[in-house]
Design goal:
Distance between the termini: 12 Å
Number of domains: 1
Strand content: 15-25%
Largest sheet: 2 strands, antiparallel
Shape: globular
CATH class: Alpha Beta
Helix content: 25-40%
CATH superfamily: Beta Polymerase, domain 2
CATH topology: Beta Polymerase, domain 2
CATH architecture: 2-Layer Sandwich
């Protein structure tokens, strides 16, 4: 899944990609955080759309929740 998320980010030229591996931490709610930056609210919206589309097409998964799209200064996808 992480590879598909990164692919979605790279398709829209994300900056500063970072993967934080959380597998070694007990009782976490996720296995990793995948973080990137964008240049503008429009770029951030395009990144979120690309990630969602890539993961849906390649993994058959949809995000459970997306927060922050209203102003697109930041977006969290679960």
């Amino acid at each position: 899944m992480i590879d598909k998320i990164i692919k979605g980010m790279q398709e829209k030229k994300a900056h500063q990609l970072v993967v934080v591996d959380l597998k070694s931490i007990e009782d976490t709610i996720c296995k990793a955080f995948v973080i990137c930056t964008g240049n503008s609210p429009t770029h951030i919206q395009a990144l979120a759309d690309s990630i969602e589309e890539t993961v849906r097409k390649e993994a058959g998964e949809k995000p459970m929740a997306i927060a922050g799209l209203r102003q697109a200064e930041w977006v969290a996808m679960d």
